[in-house]
Design goal:
Chain B: GO terms for molecular function: cytochrome-c oxidase activity; heme binding; oxidoreductase activity. Chain B: Belongs to the heme-copper respiratory oxidase family. Chain B: It is a multi-pass membrane protein. Chain B: Its main location: membrane. The complex is a heterodimer of chains A (about 210) and B (about 550). Chain A has 6 helices and no strands. The longest helix of chain A has about 40 residues. By secondary structure, chain B is mainly α. Chain B has a single domain, classed as Cytochrome c oxidase-like, subunit I domain (Cytochrome C Oxidase, Chain A), CATH 1.20.210.10. Helices cover about 65% and strands about 0% of the residues of chain B. The longest helix of chain B is centred in the middle third of the chain and has 33 residues. Chain B is globular. Classes of the chains: A mainly alpha (about 210), B mainly alpha (about 550). The interface between A and B is large, with 42 and 47 residues. Bound molecules: protoporphyrin IX containing FE and copper (II) ion (CU). Copper (II) ion binds next to helix 9 of chain B. The site of copper (II) ion has 5 residues of chain B, from helix 9.
Chain lengths: ~210, ~550
Amino acid sequence: MPDDLAPYDTPQHRDETAVAGMWLFLASEVLLFGGLFLVVLVYSHTRRAGWIMGVRHTNLIIGSINTLLLLTSSAMYTLAVVAARAGRARRIIAPALGAAGLGVAFLGLKSWEWHLEFSEHLFPGAGFSISGPDAGGAQLFYSFYFLSTALHGLHMLVGIGLILWVCYRMARRRGQPVPVIPVEVVGLYWSFVDLVWILLFPVLYLVGRV
Amino acid sequence: MSMAPMADSANGYLWQDGTLRSWLLTTDHKRIALLYMASITAFFILGGVGAALIRLQLLVPAGAILSDETYSRMFTLHGVVMVWLFLVPSIPVTLGNFLVPLMLGARDLAFPRLNLLSWYLFVMAGMLVVYGLFRGGLETGWTFYTPLSTDYTQGHVLPVVAGVFLSGFSSIATGVNFIISIHQLRAPGMTWYRLPLMLWALYATSVIFVLATPVLSITLVLLAFEHFFHVGVFDPALGGDPLLFQHLFWFYSHPAVYIMILPGMGVISEVVSTFCHKPVFGYRFVAWSSISIASIGFLVWGHHMFVAGTSLYAAVVFSMLSFLVSVPSAIKVFNWLGTMHGGAIRLDAPMLYAMGFIGLFTVGGLTGLFLASLASDVHLTQTYFVVAHFHYIMVGGMVSAYFAGLHYWWPKITGRMYPEMWGRTAAGLLFFGFNLTFFPQFLLGYEGMPRRYATYPAQFQVLNVLSSAGASILALAYILPLVYFAWSLLRGARASDNPWQATGLEWRTSSPPPTENFAHVPVVNHDAYDYAALDQANRAASQEPPHA
Ligand code: HEM
Ligand SMILES: [Cu+2]
């Protein structure tokens, strides 16, 4: 009885299973970032003064623009999901590409920000530029800053890759019925990446700034 | 339901297409199970060589063969390979992979390609770890404590940690696959309370895979980041907190010790029921105890840090919770004994292994309570008592369960019987060798011999020699099955579809099963261990004339 649907009973069964799998994977991702946020919770209390010094050195303007970019990107991708649900293949590719483009812009700005920080010697280690009694806490902050933005950036890269893969599939399958599920599943992932940033933004740029 | 006719084994999944390519690109859960089995067997042997060298070293008080530094690297090799590359994956990825779809009455796992990917991730992880170890290894122990692992180590931390990190993703993939399969792919009539207890155990294990492993992943990333860039994360010189590493590490690794026992408990439930030909006593209690072990297991990590400088109040709470987590384990033991009570027990090799498991696990669990009590732990921590405690559970328990499962499902996996006499011999040797190896270590620990030292005072020699002697018997008990399993694969007697008269769906298909598992989707209309229905079907089958 081998058929291409196996191990599922119906296409709908297969789709449900894929969506459930993505949700469960995201639960796992929550705990990945959860470990990082535990570090924040601890050090922003035990090394409060230095931690806040670190926060004050981040670039609020770039951070805010990036937040705007990413929220817009997520919203745009939602348009692609809506189009997929309505079965309109043509309307999927443009917003999806837009979402990926905004993601690339985010990463571009982020790299520029990193570049500025490197040249100001804010990377923790021997040449760290913040000094004084609380410099240790500031270093801990910047360790967290670079690690969390790198990890988030990596997730963005994966997300952008997935979106491009969806676009490629849609372009190749012109004229056939629209497979909704890949669009939805990638949308879940992209929203998650967005959500992580919504938590990272206040932690890195806002809390303790004023 | 009529039994499927005994198929020619050439039609089974095993021999159908013998090319290397067909194996390396397979998405058949049964073949992936065997790929995993080959890999973890290799790691088991590597870890075993490490153990042998450790026991050789400790034959004499001054240390027989290794320098202090090499000794540290050797127990690290042993621990890293055994925990991360053998025990954590062991039963889930081999027997679990093979059985989950069969027990559910499904064609495959929910995500067959993800399953293959998880094996490749695991192999890459293993190669990274082995590369690091063969370049010279590291001296941190399997726990990678900072600041030794970050700032002071002379060893090859990065490849090893990267390998363990990668193997985590393979665990997560397996966990996601199992959970979703159990939710989505149950055959018609297979309600939750009709699931074999093995599936409840694997479900609970998968929850830990999915929710605890990522915390280990991020912890290892932080560790590698600090080690590689020489920046502060856990470094006390910068106000960082090494205890934070321990919290994060044990938040994963205590639940992970349940990864290393729950699947074994699942196997034992199946084996005990089959060989007593009785339903498991208190099915729902056993099922839910798996879930409660997995949940409470997330709340007890602090018992590894009683003397590390945590607050007394935290320690008291962690101590009480640790007592609590032993309750569901005890429930399982009582229920197995309740199942055996008054049963006509057949003492085939799987059952001998299972009975060994119950005894050894009980000793391991009870000594856990000594360690969970604050006052006695101050004396016992960092001694051989701890080493004996976890070996009783992980080796006496889990590895015995793995062998019980291998023997029990071997006819289904290969279509051949193993030689029963040799199986019983190996099971007996294992029980004897194990106790001789590890019981003296309880005494050593109680008398104060610290763990992880290359030398020891002369007064401890007798017990150490006993332990090393036991280890050589244990080694024999592990090598024997390798030999007769290999023999049976080619020469063993053909297995019937249901040689043990067991009730699970996996026994309703041929041995070995066809690639698509079942000729017809099975329909389930009774409980997991309904032997009355099985006996009735057998009687009916023997009365009606055999069909051609
Ligand atoms: C009855 C439940 C259990 C209790 C109350 C318990 C308690 C403990 C405690 C308090 C320690 C810390 C000892 C110390 O370092 O001073 C410990 C260590 C350990 N336990 Fe258990 N345990 C239990 C079950 C298990 C199980 C099921 C496993 C494995 C399958 C396990 C594996 C370990 C390991 C590997 C260590 C040592 C970790 C290390 O420092 O290298 N335990 N246990
Ligand atoms: Cu523990």
